[in-house]
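CORE FACILITY INTAKE
Project code: CF-77B
Contact: R.S. (postdoc)
Sample description: multi-component assembly, two entities in total
Requested service: structural model of the whole complex
Turnaround: standard
Below are the sequence entries exactly as provided by the requester. Do not edit them.
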Amino acid sequence: MPEDLIREGESTVTICYYNHNKGKPEINTFFEKIDSSKCISYDDYQGSFRFCPGDVVFVHPGDGTPQTGPAKWRWVSLAKKNKDADFVFMSTQPARKKAIDLSNVHFCGYAADRLSEQPRVLEFFRLLTKGKKLWDLLNLPPFPEYLLAAYLVQAAAKNGVSVNPEESGYANFWNKAREEFDQYTAQEGALPEFTPSGDPSKLKSLLESIAKGS
Amino acid sequence: MFTPWNISCPVNILRGQLKHTWLENQVCNKSTDDVANLWRTRSWDNVIGEFFPYRINQSMQLSNDMVSGFSPAQLVDQLGPLQNLPDESRSRLKEVLHSAYLESSGISTLSELLSQELEGFEQEFSEFITVWNVERTDENESALRDGWNQLQQVANSLLAVFETLPKGVVLP
């Protein structure tokens, strides 16, 4: 994998799609986020188009019915011919990734709803414009783990069950939750309580706020 | 329901496939003209005969699995910061979170509603199959068109229930 998959300050992103997906809400969502002059239709692809090293290609094959499968996907041959480009395969069916053994094909699974409602997918696009490396994007935690865990611990305590991760080897659990809070928000005013018995409603408001902003 | 980040879970993937790939893009977006043409050309025989029943079964599986499938209890095993908790603590944590979720989310009611709508859809579909599997004549096409209109009505009602389902793990 090239060291800098996405050139700092600019990204070449191409969307491959099948013509019959035109007009589908999720494809239109792609076009709203990406310069459509950089988009190509796979059905129009004649085999002569070559990607450049560092290109990131988001593929939404829309293969649909169970009768099709990886062996029949033309975009896979595209990925084989363009080893210097990275293909992000977006699919509702994670098992299909196993059938594609190419180092330049990465998987982004999502629930098959409108992409405008998929935070992780939109995160890809948002960070692409900041020039993040592709593997950084792929390894992004989708949510702040410590804050979420802290909320669950506090919710449990409110319902009569007390557990404290710091008693089980996570010595800095509440400090780390506080660090995530500082990382994710510049919230002023009343802070959430980073203790096992803290009021979970404060953390709940924080989580909602962070999730909405992502 | 409290579903920040729409945290992925297997039951949500199934929900999304059924809503998007089947209901929205295979049932609700087909006009009677579309379906009549597919009937005449026999190009949808496998879809009606095998694929729709398969999706109905999957939908029933969803209604059976969704209460546990959307539960925040699964996060106790997934979140790194909770993985060192002793087994007993994890078990108690899962239990209390699951109970709180059941109480606050209304998920059991949704599951029952989905199940009822599915029963209605399955009933209408079984009638539709009888008008599908007949000789392709102009006279029979009229019955087919009526049948598809009926099926689409219950499909839209089923889709409306799907719209209310959570799109990720539900927190208490």
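Facility notes:
- The first helix of chain B runs from residue 10 to 27.
- The radius of gyration of chain B is 20 Å.
Invoice: internal transfer
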